[in-house]
Design brief:
alpha+beta; 66 residues; three-stranded antiparallel beta sheet
């Protein structure tokens, strides 16, 4: 099933303690809402590099009806 996942992404540069936030919308293939959330968290964790950290707070999850 496909889910539309809206997240508040926070990017932090720990070397200068600077934070930026962005609202992002993702289309995720997942078995259920918990799996969709897990995939989003894995995606953002994989983007971490050096002093740059990414976190995502899920705002909403809905199913895509085709």
């Amino acid at each position: 099933m496909q889910y539309i996942v809206t997240v508040k992404k926070t990017t932090t540069d720990t070397s200068i303690n600077q934070h930026t936030s962005t609202i992002c919308v993702h289309l995720v293939d997942a078995t259920d809402e918990a799996n969709a959330t897990s995939k989003i968290n894995t995606y953002y964790t994989a983007m971490n590099s050096g002093t740059i950290e990414h976190t995502a707070d899920v705002i909403s999850i809905s199913t895509l009806i085709s």
